[in-house]
C-alpha cells in the first residue's frame, strides 16, 4: 500500500543535524500527526472530507427538479423543445468538468491539495449563486459550464482522503468521499424540489415583490451556496498533506544510497501514468462500472414511474423519492459501520468482485417485480434498491483505492483528474444511451425474446459483467508492493 511506503520514508527527513539539507513540508507534519495518532481514526480530517465533498456535489443535481420550469420561464424554447434545451443545460456542468479535471489534478500535485479544495468551494459559492440569478439561457448555460470547470475538488479530495489516513483506514477515507458524494446527489434534488418557486409554494412566507419573486430559482441555489460558504470558512483548519522537499546537492548521494528510496524511485509507479499498467487497468473497469451506475440511476426512475402496460411499476414521483431516500440512508449506515469490516476481511479487489457479481443477480430480479403489488412489491423494491446502492459503493470505493495506491503521492492528483475526466465523459454518454435504450424497449413489450423492461436490465447487466471481467488477470494488474 502507498500509505506504508510514505510512512516508511518519513524518518528519512529529520528536522536538523545530518538532515539539515532537507526542508520539511506540510506532508511531513501530517505524517508525524498520523504517527502520534497511534492507529486511531482521523475523525476531524474525515469530517472535513465529508462536508467539502458534500458541498461540491450538491450543485450537480440541485437544478434537475426545476430544470423544465426554468427553461420554460427563460422563454428560450417552445414547449415541445424544452427537453432539448434542458439537456444542454443539464450536461454543461459535466462538459466543463471534463475539460478542466486533469488541470486541477496537476495543480493539486504541484501546489497542494488545500488550495485547490478552497478554490473549488469558493467557485461553488459564487457561480452557483449566479446560476440562480440567471435571466437568460446563455447566462444559465455559461455559469453552469464555468462552475463545472472551476470546481476541481473531486480529484484532490480523493487523494487527500488517502493521505490523512494510515494504511488501515484508507478504505474508510475513500468510502467517506463516495458516501458524501452520493448523499449530495440525493439531497441536491430534494433542495431543488422543495425550495424552487417559493412564492408559489409558500406564499405566506415569500411575497411576489421580494427577490425570490423575481428570481424563482434563486432560493435552492442560495441554500447550496450558503452551506458551501460555511464549509469554505471551515477549510481554514484543513491541514495540507502534500510533501514539498528540497535537497541540497551534497545530500543527493546519501539519499539515493538508501535501498528504500532507491526502490521508491525505481518503482513502476514512478513512470508516466499512461505507462503505469496497474493504474491504467483499473481505469478500464472504473469506466465500465461508472457507465453502469449512471445508466442504472436514470433507468431506475424512468422504469419505476412508467405505466405497468409498458413494463413499469406505476410509481409516483413521491414513491420513487422515498425509495431513493431510504437507499441513501442505508448507504450512509453501511459506509460508516459495515464497510470497514468488509474491506478488512476481503480487501478491495475481492470485495468489488463479489459486489459486482451480487449486483448482477439483484438486477436480474427487477423485471419480475412487475408481477408483485402492494406490500410485497414495496418490500422487494426497497430491499433491492438498498442492496444495489450498497454494492455499487463497495465497487467504486474498492476500485478508487486500487487506483490511488497504484501511483505515487505526487501523481495522485493528476491520476484522479484523469479518472474524473474519463468518468465525466461516460456520465455524459450514459444518460443519453439509457434514454434511447429505454424508449426503444418500451416499444417492444410484445417481443418473444427479452420483451420491454427485460432487455433494459439485460443490457445493464452486460455492462456490469464486462466491468467484472476486467477485474481479473490478464486485464487487471494489481499495484506493486511498496518495497518491490
TrEMBL record:
<feature type="transmembrane region" description="Helical">
    <location>
        <begin position="116"/>
        <end position="135"/>
    </location>
</feature>
<keyword id="KW-0813">Transport</keyword>
<feature type="transmembrane region" description="Helical">
    <location>
        <begin position="141"/>
        <end position="160"/>
    </location>
</feature>
<feature type="transmembrane region" description="Helical">
    <location>
        <begin position="423"/>
        <end position="442"/>
    </location>
</feature>
<dbReference type="InterPro" id="IPR001958">
    <property type="entry name" value="Tet-R_TetA/multi-R_MdtG-like"/>
</dbReference>
<dbReference type="InterPro" id="IPR011701">
    <property type="entry name" value="MFS"/>
</dbReference>
<feature type="transmembrane region" description="Helical">
    <location>
        <begin position="320"/>
        <end position="342"/>
    </location>
</feature>
<keyword id="KW-0812">Transmembrane</keyword>
<dbReference type="InterPro" id="IPR020846">
    <property type="entry name" value="MFS_dom"/>
</dbReference>
<dbReference type="InterPro" id="IPR036259">
    <property type="entry name" value="MFS_trans_sf"/>
</dbReference>
<keyword id="KW-0472">Membrane</keyword>
<feature type="transmembrane region" description="Helical">
    <location>
        <begin position="82"/>
        <end position="104"/>
    </location>
</feature>
<feature type="transmembrane region" description="Helical">
    <location>
        <begin position="379"/>
        <end position="402"/>
    </location>
</feature>
<dbReference type="GO" id="GO:0016020">
    <property type="term" value="C:membrane"/>
</dbReference>
<dbReference type="Pfam" id="PF07690">
    <property type="entry name" value="MFS_1"/>
</dbReference>
<feature type="transmembrane region" description="Helical">
    <location>
        <begin position="215"/>
        <end position="238"/>
    </location>
</feature>
<dbReference type="GO" id="GO:0022857">
    <property type="term" value="F:transmembrane transporter activity"/>
</dbReference>
<keyword id="KW-1133">Transmembrane helix</keyword>
<protein>
    <recommendedName>
        <fullName>Major facilitator superfamily (MFS) profile domain-containing protein</fullName>
    </recommendedName>
</protein>
<feature type="transmembrane region" description="Helical">
    <location>
        <begin position="277"/>
        <end position="300"/>
    </location>
</feature>
<feature type="transmembrane region" description="Helical">
    <location>
        <begin position="172"/>
        <end position="195"/>
    </location>
</feature>
<feature type="transmembrane region" description="Helical">
    <location>
        <begin position="354"/>
        <end position="373"/>
    </location>
</feature>
<feature type="transmembrane region" description="Helical">
    <location>
        <begin position="454"/>
        <end position="472"/>
    </location>
</feature>
<feature type="domain" description="Major facilitator superfamily (MFS) profile">
    <location>
        <begin position="45"/>
        <end position="479"/>
    </location>
</feature>
<feature type="transmembrane region" description="Helical">
    <location>
        <begin position="43"/>
        <end position="70"/>
    </location>
</feature>
Amino acid at each position: 500500500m502507498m500509505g506504508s511506503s510514505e510512512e516508511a520514508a518519513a524518518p528519512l527527513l529529520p528536522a536538523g543535524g545530518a538532515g539539515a539539507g532537507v526542508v520539511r513540508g506540510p506532508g511531513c507534519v501530517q505524517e508525524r500527526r498520523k504517527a502520534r495518532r497511534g492507529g486511531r481514526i482521523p475523525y476531524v480530517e474525515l469530517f472535513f472530507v465529508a462536508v467539502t465533498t458534500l458541498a461540491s456535489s450538491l450543485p450537480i443535481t440541485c437544478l434537475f427538479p426545476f430544470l423544465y420550469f426554468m427553461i420554460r420561464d427563460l422563454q428560450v424554447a417552445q414547449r415541445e423543445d424544452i427537453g432539448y434545451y434542458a439537456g444542454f443545460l443539464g450536461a454543461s456542468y459535466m462538459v466543463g468538468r471534463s475539460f478542466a479535471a486533469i488541470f486541477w489534478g496537476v495543480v493539486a500535485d504541484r501546489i497542494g491539495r488545500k488550495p485547490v479544495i478552497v478554490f473549488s468551494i469558493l467557485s461553488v459559492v459564487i457561480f452557483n449563486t449566479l446560476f440562480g440569478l440567471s435571466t437568460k439561457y446563455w447566462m444559465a448555460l455559461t455559469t453552469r459550464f464555468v462552475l463545472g470547470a472551476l470546481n476541481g475538488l473531486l480529484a484532490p479530495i480523493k487523494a487527500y482522503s488517502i493521505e490523512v489516513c494510515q494504511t488501515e483506514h484508507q478504505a474508510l477515507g475513500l468510502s467517506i468521499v463516495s458516501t458524501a458524494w452520493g448523499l449530495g446527489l440525493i439531497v441536491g434534488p430534494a433542495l431543488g424540489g422543495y425550495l424552487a418557486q417559493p412564492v408559489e409554494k409558500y406564499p405566506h412566507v415569500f411575497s411576489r415583490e421580494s427577490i425570490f419573486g423575481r428570481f424563482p430559482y434563486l432560493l435552492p441555489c442560495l441554500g447550496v451556496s450558503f452551506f458551501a460558504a460555511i464549509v469554505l470558512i471551515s477549510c481554514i483548519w484543513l491541514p495540507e498533506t502534500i510533501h514539498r522537499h528540497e535537497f541540497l546537492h551534497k545530500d543527493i548521494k546519501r539519499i539515493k544510497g538508501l535501498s528504500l528510496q532507491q526502490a521508491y524511485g525505481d518503482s513502476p509507479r514512478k513512470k508516466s501514468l499512461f505507462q503505469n499498467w496497474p493504474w491504467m487497468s483499473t481505469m478500464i473497469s472504473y469506466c465500465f462500472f461508472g457507465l453502469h451506475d449512471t445508466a442504472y440511476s436514470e433507468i431506475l426512475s424512468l422504469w419505476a414511474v412508467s405505466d405497468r402496460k409498458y413494463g413499469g411499476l406505476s410509481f409516483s414521483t413521491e414513491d420513487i423519492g422515498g425509495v431513493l431516500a431510504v437507499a441513501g440512508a442505508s448507504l450512509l449506515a453501511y459506509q460508516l459501520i459495515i464497510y470497514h469490516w468488509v474491506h478488512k476481511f476481503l480487501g478491495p479487489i475481492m470485495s468489488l468482485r463479489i459486489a459486482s457479481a451480487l449486483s448482477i443477480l439483484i438486477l436480474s430480479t427487477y423485471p419480475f417485480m412487475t408481477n408483485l403489488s402492494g406490500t410485497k412489491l414495496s418490500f422487494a423494491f426497497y430491499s433491492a434498491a438498498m442492496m444495489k446502492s450498497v454494492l455499487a459503493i463497495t465497487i467504486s470505493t474498492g476500485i478508487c483505492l486500487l487506483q490511488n495506491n497504484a501511483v505515487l503521492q505526487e501523481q495522485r492528483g493528476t491520476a484522479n483528474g484523469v479518472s474524473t475526466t474519463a468518468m465525466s465523459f461516460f456520465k455524459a454518454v450514459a444518460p443519453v444511451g439509457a434514454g434511447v435504450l429505454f424508449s426503444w424497449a418500451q416499444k417492444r413489450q410484445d417481443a418473444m425474446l427479452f420483451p420491454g423492461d427485460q432487455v433494459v436490465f439485460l443490457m445493464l447487466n452486460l455492462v456490469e459483467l464486462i466491468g467484472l471481467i476486467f477485474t481479473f488477470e490478464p486485464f487487471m494488474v494489481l499495484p506493486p508492493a511498496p518495497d518491490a
